[in-house]
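Technical annex, item 7. During the second reporting period the consortium partners agreed on a shared format for inverse folding records so that results from different sites could be compared directly. Each record opens with the tokenized structure and is followed by the designed sequence. A conforming record, contributed by the partner at site C, is shown below for reference.
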């Protein structure tokens, strides 16, 4: 699961997989890599996003799987608001230093899970974000990882040996499909520095 959908690592990024009631993948983004999830301008306005287009690609590659819940949280912002019509929200909750806000989307509550990478949570950054979260001003950046298998151009397969049939030749896509099938029903947890982003996908029996 991790090798297929969340591969790669760097000084400011790594992933870890564990098994509890299902398969959980924790992907950690630190330093400037966190700008894949938040942008902050000079006026102090912060926007938080999730790579929903990619997550939906992952879910759709499983048989009978879907994303049924999404939660986006962020600390050290105030005057926060949610986009994309969440089913529930907790905004501007006071912390010992600054505030905390969270937006939830749940299919069971009638919400539509967002499908684009547009910002889902916005607000005004507080000093605690710089002092404790080591946040920086900057725009959104492309995710340094994972390597998205859906964007990889397939290489030309070698011609089968004389007399070989299609069944004798295993293609890269067939191999990937097997791995995806084995991982069906897994759930993922994504944590991004100051932003805690949780998404789950459900396997329907």
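Designed sequence (site C submission):
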């Amino acid at each position: 699961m991790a090798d297929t959908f969340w591969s790669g690592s760097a000084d400011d990024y790594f992933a870890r997989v564990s098994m509890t009631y299902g398969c959980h993948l924790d992907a950690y983004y630190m330093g400037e890599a966190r700008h894949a999830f938040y942008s902050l301008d000079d006026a102090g306005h912060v926007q938080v996003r999730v790579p929903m287009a990619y997550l939906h690609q992952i879910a759709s590659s499983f048989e009978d799987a879907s994303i049924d819940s999404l939660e986006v949280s962020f600390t050290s912002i105030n005057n926060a608001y949610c986009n994309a019509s969440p089913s529930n929200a907790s905004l501007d909750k006071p912390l010992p230093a600054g505030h905390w806000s969270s937006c939830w989307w749940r299919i069971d509550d009638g919400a539509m899970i967002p499908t684009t990478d547009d910002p889902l949570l916005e607000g005004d950054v507080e000093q605690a974000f710089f002092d404790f979260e080591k946040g920086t001003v900057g725009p959104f950046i492309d995710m340094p990882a994972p390597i998205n298998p859906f964007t990889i151009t397939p290489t030309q397969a070698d011609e089968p040996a004389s007399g070989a049939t299609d069944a004798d030749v295993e293609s890269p896509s067939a191999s990937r499909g097997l791995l995806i099938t084995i991982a069906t029903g897994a759930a993922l947890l994504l944590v991004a520095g100051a932003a805690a982003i949780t998404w789950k996908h459900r396997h329907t029996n």
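Residues 165-205 have pLDDT under 50 and may be disordered. The longest strand covers residues 65-75. All partners now use this format for quarterly exchanges.
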